[in-house]
Design a protein that fits this description.
Blueprint: E1 11-16, H1 23-27, H2 29-37, E2 40-45, E3 58-59, E4 69-70, H3 72-86, E5 93-104, H4 107-119, E6 123-127, H5 136-142, E7 145-148, H6 158-169, H7 180-183, E8 202-203, E9 206-207, H8 217-235, H9 237-247
Parallel strand pairs: 1-2, 1-6, 5-6, 5-7
Antiparallel strand pairs: 3-4, 8-9
Helix pairs in contact: 3-5, 4-6, 8-9
Catalytic activity: guanosine(37) in tRNA + S-adenosyl-L-methionine = N(1)-methylguanosine(37) in tRNA + S-adenosyl-L-homocysteine + H(+)
Subunit structure: Homodimer.
EC number: 2.1.1.228
């Protein structure tokens, strides 16, 4: 039973051929706990919406070519099931698909999804593609957002959907043990995080920087900021150039 601070409309659906992929995601770590207590997260097996089960969810592409394509009519039946179950209209859904053509997903997109999820009170539906993708007509008629994780191809959309939902959920209230954690992470100010240290104070002859153990918070803040700049310049020169350009 959810004990949520969110509106009853807030719910996440995932349409997939492999719902078992999400079992650990829904039950592990801080995100698993958050989903258990705050936000409904439900997976739908696409095969349940085809008379032939998994054998009827796809077909060969018109015009020829390798692989199979997920059928628009089967995907539509899954959407109709959601609309009927929740007694809502199509306009009350945000239907999200992952594809190489999509906007490359980043921290700003994660915050935008989290904000829209709270404010618009739409239910989110993630479509996990497989094989050669899904019928273009379904995308044109139903999909409202398309994201890509980067310039590479995965065997299915499940990993991409888990990545996107994990990044999004971290920005919702109560998702993390400390609500300040998300806003102190990498990318929030255009930089990546610097080094972090914990016990033991001496590891293989390397000591923790003394400034971090002396209790002067002003110096600690200066140290951390300088290290963020140093690490960003070293590991993400693209971000560093953008950061420095925006400071001018």
């Amino acid at each position: 039973m959810l004990n949520s601070t969110f509106n009853v409309m807030n719910k996440i659906w995932v349409i997939t051929l492999f719902p078992q992929f999400f079992d650990a995601f829904k039950s592990s770590g801080v995100i698993g706990k958050f989903l258990e207590n705050e936000v409904e997260f439900e997976t739908l097996y696409l095969g349940d919406f085809s008379p032939k089960s998994f054998k009827g969810v796809d077909s060969s592409p018109y015009g020829g070519g390798p692989g199979m394509v997920l059928r628009a009519d089967v995907l539509e039946e899954a959407i109709k099931h959601i609309l009927k179950t929740e007694k809502i209209s199509k306009d009350e859904l945000e239907i999200i698909y992952t594809s190489p053509r999509g906007t490359v997903f980043n921290n700003d997109n994660a915050k935008d999804l989290a904000s829209s999820f709270q404010e618009n009170r739409k239910q989110y539906v993630f479509i996990c593609g497989r094989y050669e993708g899904i019928d273009e007509r379904f995308i044109e008629q139903y999909v409202t957002r398309i994201y890509s994780l980067g310039d590479y191809v995965l065997s299915g959309g499940e990993l991409a959907v888990m990545t996107i939902t994990d990044a999004m959920l971290r920005f919702l209230p109560k998702a993390l043990g400390n609500d300040q954690s998300a806003i102190c992470d990498s990318f929030e100010d255009g930089l990546i995080e610097g080094p972090v240290y914990t016990r033991p104070s001496n590891f293989n002859g390397v000591k923790v920087p003394s400034v971090l153990t002396e209790g002067n918070h002003k110096l600690i803040d200066e140290f951390n900021q300088n290290k963020k700049l140093e690490f960003t310049k070293k590991y993400r020169p693209d971000l560093y150039k953008t950061y420095m350009r925006n400071k001018v």
